[in-house]
Write a sequence for this structure.
């Protein structure tokens, strides 16, 4: 017959010396139901059942971890003789990890032996985890169109290499992780034209230190110039030849009050010397 044991205060069942002893209380029944809260104050709880069903939608691990500390938390799968498997939060790395491990779950840390694979469905949203198949498919459809100064477009497909090749006196070099260095040689050859980018801007040729700007060949004035404005430096230019017979003029604000003068040819200078006796 059913029996009810009722007490108006705390009720303790104790065997031997209690929790510090070695005796046990065994409930031998088909079902043992606890209608109030169940608190287990021991150091180890073992549930030896074929099926475990939990109503609580949120399970809290490391309940007494009140301050940030290096305590790993997660689920460990006992695999018998092989390394165990774990999916857990690694506090030191600040990330979730799926691993095989030599740990047995008795400590506060997981010792990784290798990373484990995780399978997931194909991503549908931008925040979904990408699968290898998705990444491979996306990378496989990649193309890059590149054009040079001549506007000729080339297509760089998946698995191809875009190479930067230097011209005369220009060298290129690549270095990891993501750098291409372009060097312009000090001695320039095969240069047919140099011009300034800004309208009315000066084009300056300057040597280093006490060196000179040296012209080893013919210096040609390709067109007649207008008389420039005189300044404290000497400007040389060409115009229609005048009395000097050269067409090569100069102007300097400190010479002849800035009036332009023409360089005299040898023939003109000889004729002038004879004329002046």
């Amino acid at each position: 017959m059913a029996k009810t044991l009722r007490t108006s205060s705390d009720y303790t069942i104790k065997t031997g010396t209690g929790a510090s002893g070695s005796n046990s209380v065994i409930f031998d029944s088909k079902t043992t139901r606890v209608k109030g809260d169940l608190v287990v104050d021991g150091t180890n709880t073992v549930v030896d059942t074929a099926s475990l069903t939990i109503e609580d939608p949120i399970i809290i691990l490391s309940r007494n971890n009140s301050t940030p500390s290096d305590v790993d938390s997660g689920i460990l799968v006992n695999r018998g003789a092989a390394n165990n498997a774990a999916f857990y939060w690694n506090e030191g790395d600040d990330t979730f990890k799926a691993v095989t491990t030599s740990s047995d779950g008795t400590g506060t840390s997981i010792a990784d032996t290798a990373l484990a694979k995780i399978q997931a469905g194909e991503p549908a949203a931008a925040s979904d985890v990408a699968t290898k198949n998705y990444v491979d498919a996306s990378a496989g459809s990649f193309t890059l169109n590149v054009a040079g100064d001549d506007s000729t477009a080339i297509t760089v497909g998946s698995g191809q290499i875009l190479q930067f090749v230097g011209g005369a006196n220009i060298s290129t070099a690549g270095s990891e992780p993501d750098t291409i260095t372009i060097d312009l040689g000090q001695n320039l050859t095969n240069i047919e034209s140099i011009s300034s980018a800004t309208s009315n801007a000066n084009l300056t040729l300057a040597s280093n230190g006490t060196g000179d700007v040296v012209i080893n060949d013919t210096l040609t004035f390709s067109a007649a110039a207008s008389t420039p404005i005189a300044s404290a430096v000497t400007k040389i230019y060409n115009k229609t030849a005048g009395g000097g017979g050269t067409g090569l003029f100069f102007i300097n604000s400190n010479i002849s009050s800035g009036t332009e003068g023409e360089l005299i040819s040898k023939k003109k200078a000889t004729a002038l010397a004879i004329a002046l006796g």
Summary: The helical segments are 132-140, 266-276. The mean pLDDT is 89. The two ends are 159 Å apart (CA to CA).
